Amino acid sequence: MADFLRETQWLWWIAAALALGLVEVASLDLVFAMLTVAALVAAGVAYTGASFTIQALVFSATAALLLLVVRPVALRKLKPAGPAQRTGTAGHVGRTAEVLATVTDRAGQVKLAGEVWSARAADSGVTIEPGELVEVVVIDGATAVVRPRPSQTPS
Hints:
By secondary structure, this protein is of the alpha+beta class. The protein has four helices and five strands; from the N terminus they run H-H-H-H-E-E-E-E-E.
């Protein structure tokens, strides 16, 4: 029985690598990816017939090396520093729009990114006439809250 367990230890490492790989797919943080690779290296060592102590040491050393050296480099490549790409309505904030119907602090219409949006002025008492350019301050539901902007071409 002991020989059977010794001969199949590499399969246990492969099973561990598969389980760790599945956890990585759920987390997408590259921690479990590094542990998966370390388990595969340990499986290779186990296949050569090394003792479990050696396998565990190889797994630990490989995991530490990958987590401390490879993962930070991989994260920098996959998730560059700086502001993240804004999507959805947040992607419209800061854009330039053209006023289509007079915008007041209660109502109006603008053309934003090729679409017609309901709009209102960010400041009370402000009236913005059709043809003028505005900057989107925030999107409130389906309404673009805007403020006057110096003449530029719409984006």
